[in-house]
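Researcher: Next sequence.
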Amino acid sequence: MKLFFIKPFSVACIAMLLPLAMQAQEKATLAILSIKPISSLAASIRSPDKMLELNRIIESMDGQLIDRMNETRKFQIVSRSDLDQVLKEQGFGGSGNVDPKTAAEIGKLTGASDIMTATVDDFQDYVETATFEGTGRTATKRVFRFSIVAKIYETKTGKLVESANFQTGNDEFKQIQQERSYSVKDGELSDEMMVAVAQKSAERIATHVADIIFPPKVLIRRDNVVTINRGEGGRVAVGDVFNVFAQGEELKDPDTGEVLGREEVKVGRVKISQVNPKTSLADILDDSGIDKGAVLHKQAPPVTP
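Model: Next structure:
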């Protein structure tokens, strides 16, 4: 029987490398609270059918949001069952606000570094009828609005890191309806449309949150092509154009000392040419210093008159 001995030097090397390996594999751990309507919105909906419609959208979006956040590959998602138990023990209500104590407890008991809350603050779905004077003719117009506010809190401090409002209105609603050929009843969404609205909203929230905490970055540059750390599920598509920024000094509020981010200097533009499972390739359109580590922000599409 052979005995193998590891030299003390090797043991020391392994001990030094293990924390680095573990750190490289760590992801931000995110706890996603159940989506709820704000109390005033819930109280204002008199029709049981409309309330059922809203609840179906929220129920669908609850699962969609977890799925979309997981698809970004940037977060380790806390088990909803574990999270619900913690919230029950802490007596957390449905306001969508997280106090430092609740944040600290969620972080301690679930290992979450960040908490996401999402509250629906507006929902309208009805048919409006207008009568033209003199002719007696009438015209109908579908009115649809869905608005949700997403917030990210740090568990260590309970500090609000990001808050953003996401809206789906008439124009986007019509586009979803046309693209997917979903039917609608008079002032009522079909089940398919509810899922489509929920999916669209969940995608927008997941992309925004991932881009705020982990903005797309240049991994490597080869001649006039860059590789970025966004792939399938990262909301990038062939043809997307991104502005590229070099990061400078850390910016701090002189009054509070709060870190506001880093200085960003525009150094060019790139256009996505290939999307892979975990990365994408982009052709450089303009260049005044694009290099590894540069941050990307998607260029807004031109406004049509």
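Model: Residues 1-25 have pLDDT under 50 and may be disordered. The chain is about 35% helix and 35% strand.
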